[in-house]
Structures are given as structure tokens and as C-alpha cells.
Amino acid sequence: MSKTIFLRLSEEKFKNLASRDNRPSSNFIETAVKKYIEHNIYVDEFEMEEIRNNSELNKSLKKGFSDMKSKKG
User: Can you give the pTM of this predicted structure?
Assistant: First the structure.
């Protein structure tokens, strides 16, 4: 669900960057926020593959999940 929010920003910085891509400042800011979230929150496919192949890590995660479900620790 999208929500309108208001920000007080120096428009010139965003206006110049947005104009390079031939789009409005609002779209540039929205895209920048989405990219930030994608790069800082989500795991990319290569990192996920490393996680899946790390048996010690997976064993530890399963143990932790089991402990959580049984309310240990």
C-alpha cells in the first residue's frame, strides 16, 4: 500500500540528478529509496546460495528456531 509523505529537501540536488534520467524528482527519490532498501535489507542470490550451502550455519539456525519454539534461552 502506498502512502504519501512529505519531505523537506534541497530540491536542486535531486532535480539535477532526476533530469539526467529525464524523470521527475519525486520518481528519482522513490527509486533511490527502493534501491537503498533492496541493497541494505535483502540478501542477493549469491549471498543466499552461500547461506544455503553453509551446513554449520544452517544447523545453528535450526537449533535457534527450535529453541525459540520451545521457549528456551
Answer: 0.52
